[in-house]
Amino acid sequence: MTNAAIVGCGDVATVHAEALEALASDLGIKFVAVVDKDLETAEKFATGLGAAGDSSESSIKAYGSLPTLFAKEKIDVLHITTPHDQHIGLALEALHHGVNVILEKPLANELDQAQRLIDYLDENPDGPKIAVCYQNRYNVSSQELRRLLDSGELGAINGAYSSVVWTRTPGYYTQKPWRGQQAHSGGGLLMNQAIHTLDLLQWFLGEATEVKGTVSTDKYADVIDVEDTAHAYIRHESGVHTSFYGTLTNSRHRHVEIELDCENALVELRDGLVVNWTDGRVERFEERNQESEGRSYWGVSHELLIRDFYEKLGDQEPFWIGPREAMSSLDIAKSIYSSSAETR
Ligand SMILES: NC(=O)c1ccc[n+]([C@@H]2O[C@H](COP(=O)([O-])OP(=O)(O)OC[C@H]3O[C@@H](n4cnc5c(N)ncnc54)[C@H](O)[C@@H]3O)[C@@H](O)[C@H]2O)c1
């Protein structure tokens, strides 16, 4: 049996809990406990999980801190689903206890915090495993695009365009104030929402070698002190550049877009992948359906990433989406902020 726990019983924790319950019998996972700094929140979450299964009382325990969890239970994998400024401290605490970690994105609220974890892993290469939750790499569209890029069939890439145009309400921030507070989140749209797309862009096109951009708070300035809108110009090590636009000020969620203008095709990633070959063929790859209670615009692939992580726990090599991989998108987001600050 592999004993699992979740720390941070908020919105995204539901998606992790659903995945654990779905994978439990297949992968021999025992979902042992949940932790929240607010014990009552943890207790309610644990009770809710029990109620979702059969009618018997939940066997999942609730704790108010990580030290208490580690003192009382033997945990093999800890899912960290807390706010951004609470990622690194909790991850290091788990690794110190020999516990493997699945950490929600972004890696950290600030680069120096993220670097602490990377330094620790460099000094302890044979320690427990750690994944960072960039689940959208498992989407059908992402996997197919990565495959096409690897095959060379698309030819040279002339350029890329990407957008994240979503909606938010003031309540999204007032209910969970950390989301709109620079000190806790380290940023707004770029750090919390568009970071997935920044991760995909650098995975497809290579690390960013030059980043310029601006950020602004266009709609929610009276509620938050982070940006709700951004644009950026990103040059990748491949030489390709991306024009990026993102905003949370729209009245509805549009699909995230990544468009690659290639020698042999125009490739459109937007709720699935469409490849418009220059010879007239059109290939379509449909995305999987969203079956979780999690919100569909988060992507549908949390369970696939979590499955992959548990299946590879015994492998020698580190998990493929670890802190180093996750540092690249954090770097891009922070470079956009620096560029924006310089041009003001
Ligand atoms: N991968 C995705 O698609 C995705 C989607 C949504 C959220 N997220 C990420 O998940 C994380 C959580 O987001 P959310 O919207 O669920 O947050 P939330 O505010 O809904 O929940 C966070 C919970 O963590 C608890 N908490 C805070 N500090 C703690 C600590 N030190 N110890 C224990 N518990 C603590 C809070 O009490 C709260 O219950 C963020 O990093 C966010 O970026 C990822």
Explain this structure to me?
This is Dehydrogenase. Residues 3-124 form the Gfo/Idh/MocA-like oxidoreductase N-terminal domain. Pfam families: GFO_IDH_MocA, GFO_IDH_MocA_C3. One of its GO terms (molecular function) is nucleotide binding. The chain is α/β, with parallel strands linked by helices. It has two domains: 2-135, Rossmann fold (3-Layer(aba) Sandwich); 138-295 and 321-342, Dihydrodipicolinate Reductase, domain 2, CATH 3.30.360.10. The chain is built from twelve helices and 14 strands. It has helices at residues 13-27, 39-52, 66-72, 87-96, 111-123, 140-151, 170-175, 182-185, 189-193, 195-205, 302-311, 323-342; strands spanning 2-7, 29-35, 61-63, 77-80, 100-103, 130-132, 157-165, 208-216, 229-236, 241-247, 257-262, 265-269, 273-277, 282-285. The strands form two sheets. It has an eight-stranded mixed sheet. The radius of gyration is 20 Å and the shape is globular. Residues 52-56 have low confidence and may be disordered.
Feature tags:
about 350 residues, Rossmann fold, six-stranded parallel beta sheet, 14 strands, 2 domains, eight-stranded mixed beta sheet, Dihydrodipicolinate Reductase, domain 2
